[in-house]
Amino acid sequence: MRRIVVAKVGEIPAGERKIIVPFRGRAGIGIFNVKGRFYALRNICPHKRGPLCTGEVAGRSTTSAPPSLTGGFVGYEREGEIIRCPWHAWQFDIATGQCLVDPDVRVKTYPIIVDGDELIVDVDVNDFVKEG
Amino acid sequence: MAQTIDKLEQIHIGKKGAAPIAAPGWAGRPADRVKLVDCDVHHSFHDPHQLLPYLPKFYQEHLLDQGLHLPGAGYANTPFRRTRPDIKDPALQERDFNFSLEFTQKELLDRWSIDIALLTGSASFYGYAGLPDPDWAAALCTAYNDWTIEHWLEKDPRVVNAILIAPGDPSLAVKEIHRLAHRKDTAAVMMPMQSPELFGKRLYHPIWEACAEHDLPVVSHIGGGSPGSTPTPSGFPSYYMESRMTRPSVASAQAASLIVEGVFEKFPNFKVALIEAQQMWAVPLMWHMDTDWKAIGDQTPWLKRLPSEYFREHIRVGTQPMHEPPQTEQVYQMLEMLHADETLIFCSDFPHFDWNDPVTVLPKLDEHTHRRIFAENALDLLRISDDMIEAVVA
To answer: Chain A: nearest CA to B81, how far in angstroms?
Structure first.
């Protein structure tokens, strides 16, 4: 078990992020505060190796049907929970690393432990996680 | 007891967006030759008023009075305002993506070891090709070209120019080619692909003749349009994604027009690259045209060879946007059918959101095909002198 302090809790307010480089590789990881919960993602997009964690945090548009007079209202959901890679705009669920545009794609995630005012990554846990 | 990483470099990303981080790199090139040529690097002023010093008084007043008033198709839904949000030019305002040479050097040329970059102007400027006033369009091209000379070409030997010309009055386009052809950094001529008439039509032949005279290729980027013209015979697509799917038909039509009208019989050293319109459309075009030529070539007897032979000798296509088929093996099949070692040139489309970096754009290729796509096809196409090559590999 090897735990590494990556940030103080107060450093990353809700909706913000911190990118730590290098960390487990040259591109580092991104730590996100999504509505008070912390998540960490590898900062390499599985699509074309873009710096995923520098992308825009947003939601996604949603609708039940194509636009029409009586239906197909385009709404917006999951604001603040989704990151779009700055290269080619693929969307990923920050909490799970799941790519939302390709079910076979996932970015590596790192469990974050909150210990007092410290945010900690247990890097050994991840040695057993298969990378996408 | 947890260990800290205080000693490691940390970058904090605030509300204002992302800061640059170390993008995955690209190994250096051998010192003795050009390894990487990028045939589509967008460059732009960040304020149209930067063109004022390069315009005659009459058009200075016009610009101050009316702005650029460029026509556009109205597709608003390019994400991130079209450009990569992971990089920010510190010299520019938030959300201004019209990068300086210095920033382009840092984020593209140096980071990715680009030996030669062909400047293609700003895609949002290509509306000049659809301006009703041909003199205004030509004046804007001249101003843009002169601004590019002063602020880009004279500052870095790695950047060369595809000089902008407007199709509205071909005689003005010819004049601009003759004006700038003597410059070593004039490597190509750029006329937006969505022209008022097809490229093979005789009204444009004086432009191609001037290009051929100076050994300059045309590198035509998607864009432009003309008043009243739609990207399909059935009007405008509603959405941006659809509009992108019309590009191969535009490129296909231009290639067929150039070939069938006999432009390459008339100007045997003339070459045309059609870029940012995908590339695989060229395969069915070549096959279909060869079949038709055998059947109905008697209607166009000035074509002495198979249409695919004209294509492979005279027309080039760019790598952007590159297909990503479900199986990697299919990429190799595509490249073989395309004769990619003759026809395909690397185009990054920097700094747009859908750019292709030189490392991941294609799977690993054999050495010959790699060299052709990433350097030699472009060096054969563009007008780049030996001493310019020496300057960049030195």
So the answer is: 12
User: What region does B223 belong to: left with phi over 0, alpha with psi -120 to 50, or beta?
Assistant: left
User: Domain with A56 in it: what CATH number?
Assistant: 2.102.10.10
- A93/B252 Cα distance (integer angstroms): 39
Number of domains in chain A: 1
Rounded distance between C-alpha atoms, residue A21 and residue B11, angstroms: 7
Inter-residue contact B19 to A54 (CB < 8 Å): yes
- pLDDT one-digit tens code per residue, B187-204: 999 999 999 999 999 999
How would residue B81 be classed by pLDDT, with cut points 50, 70 and 90? low
Whether residue A66 is contained in a domain is answered as yes
Could A5 and B353 be called an inter-chain contact, meaning their C-beta atoms sit closer than 8 Å?
A: no
Q: Where does the pLDDT of residue B228 fall: very low under 50, low under 70, confident under 90, or very high at 90 and above?
A: confident
* Residue A131 forms part of a structural domain: no
- Answer yes or no: is B163 within a domain: yes
> Residues 6 or more apart from B108 whose CB is under 8 A from it?
B38, B41, B114, B117, B348, B350, B351
pLDDT in tens, B352-364: 888 999 999 999 9
> Residue B163 is part of a domain; what is its CATH number?
3.20.20.140
Contact of A117 with chain B, judged by CB distance below 8 Å, is answered with no
The answer to whether position A132 is within a domain reads no
Domain region containing A94: 3-126
Structure tokens at B41: 């690097």
- pTM of the entire predicted model: 0.89
Q: How many domains does chain B have?
A: 1
Q: Which residue of B has its CA nearest to A121?
A: B2
Tens-digit pLDDT profile for residues B156-192:
999 999 999 999 999 999 999 999 999 999 999 999 9
Instruction: Answer yes or no: do B4 and A5 touch at CB < 8 A.
Output: yes
Q: Mutating which of B3, B9, B78, B86 best tests the A interface, going by the most A Cβ atoms within 10 A?
A: B86
The pLDDT score that the predictor gives to residue B80 is 62
In a domain, B251, yes or no: yes
3-state secondary structure of A36: coil
Domain assignment of residue B236, yes or no? yes
In a domain, B14, yes or no: no
